[in-house]
Design the sequence.
DNA sequence: TTATTTTAGTGTATAAATAACACTAAATCG
DNA sequence: CGATTTAGTGTTATTTATACACTAAAATAA
């Protein structure tokens, strides 16, 4: 118990579980939150859709494995990535004991280098409220947890910006919040809060549409470290 | 990539990392937040203090492993347990690739069945701001993260109650908040908020001390499911 | 060419939550 | 029996949230 780790030669004495890294990849497509799923071709759960993932290699960290997986599936580098939770129930995979470290990735709307475009692909984007349930393994549970984490972090982090392109309007940002929180927000209050937060940088650009043109903004990465960002929309949330 | 999991016989083709479960065990001792550490007896990090942990067995879930570990170290069952984070840097253990799933446990002040009492033990409680740093492996990092999680969850969960005995005074509860948050709270505002939250149940008991005796309360587990518990002391926190 | 529709953006009155701090209460201590 | 100690309540100013009405600038329709 004290010396809980065996010496090197001891490792072989233990039966080891397999470790995978699964990445719940979100993106905004047509103003709707989507998640990337892959279709399984073999037993178990043949034909079911699953969260993309793969075995960890001994020479890469968990996050490196997640980034590799992400790039393999989407071709995208340089995205927001965050560890979600580790799922380790004994029977989650019928073949072998598998422990899965789940990550969340947010891919920007304009970074669509993705090979998941055509209808017949075995890699596809699904709107988060229309996934082909049940998913393989315990992936319904993982997805549900990822969404819940997304919702709760939206309010006190700048996470929403990770889903937007470089330039965006304030109402587009509001739309993301509404998408993820699943509720309407007041326009005036949104404008006020987001401006007070001081995390937006005005650009000279406008976008024209049907009504009045809209100003485009960019996310200020260089935020003056002094005051912290808090952006709370509701009080009664938690994970 | 699509079929990211090999069939059963394939598992042996991969080199597998070892998986441990480490449990950061907190308790309140003499009104101060303490963490349980064990002293290593062998290389690597011989003599250094470490967060208790052990290898996962194939027939137990992650949480079961954490509970087993916890009971081995403290003799305590029935405690608050929550998964913290999974640490998997390649070089965190010099012997072998080890991925560690860290948990937080909160042990109630009155449940001191612990064999960590005497000074010469290799299992000991340390005040969280006086741990014998550096700890073994990356355990300084794990402990720091555990504390930060504890702080942020304190405000919107009933987590603090897990550290208190069955009966406690409101000022004792306030003291826990101050311990963990590391700042003084206003007495009047604390009384008001905790009472409005409706999570305390008054008991007929009092405790006598030097000044005016104090009323004892108990935590209401049977909270009427309707209104959610929010108990925020500061706005500018996150993890 | 003017009225209507559409989307963008601002302002304001009220309600609610928070923070600061002064006060009262019940016991022991000297 | 007054001072001290710890417990607990009350009051007010300030900040923040909420609801909702208003103005603005473009396209489109009459």
Sequence:
């Amino acid at each position: 118990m004290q010396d809980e780790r065996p010496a090197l030669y001891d490792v072989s004495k233990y039966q080891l579980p397999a470790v995978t890294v699964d990445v719940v990849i979100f993106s905004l497509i047509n103003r709707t939150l989507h998640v990337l799923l892959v279709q399984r071709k073999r037993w178990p759960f043949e034909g079911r859709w699953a969260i993309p993932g793969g075995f960890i290699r001994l020479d890469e960290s968990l996050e490196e494995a997640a980034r590799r997986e992400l790039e393999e599936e989407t071709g995208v580098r340089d995205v927001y990535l965050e560890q979600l939770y580790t799922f380790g129930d004994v029977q989650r995979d019928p073949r072998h004991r598998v422990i899965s470290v789940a990550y969340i990735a947010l891919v920007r709307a304009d970074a669509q280098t993705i090979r998941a475009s055509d209808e017949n692909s075995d890699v596809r984007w699904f709107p988060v409220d229309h996934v082909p349930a049940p998913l393989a393994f315990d992936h319904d549970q993982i997805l549900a947890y990822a969404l819940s984490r997304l919702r709760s972090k939206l309010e006190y982090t700048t996470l929403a910006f990770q889903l937007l392109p470089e330039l965006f309007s304030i109402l587009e940002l509001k739309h993301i919040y509404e998408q993820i929180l699943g509720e309407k927000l007041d326009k005036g209050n949104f404008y006020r809060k987001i401006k007070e937060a001081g995390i937006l940088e005005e650009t000279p650009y406008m976008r024209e549409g049907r009504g009045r043109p809209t100003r485009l903004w960019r996310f200020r990465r260089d935020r003056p470290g002094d005051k912290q960002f808090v952006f709370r929309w509701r009080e009664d949330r938690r994970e």
Q: What stands out?
A: Chain A has a mean pLDDT of 85. Chain A touches chain B through 60 residues (CB under 8 Å).
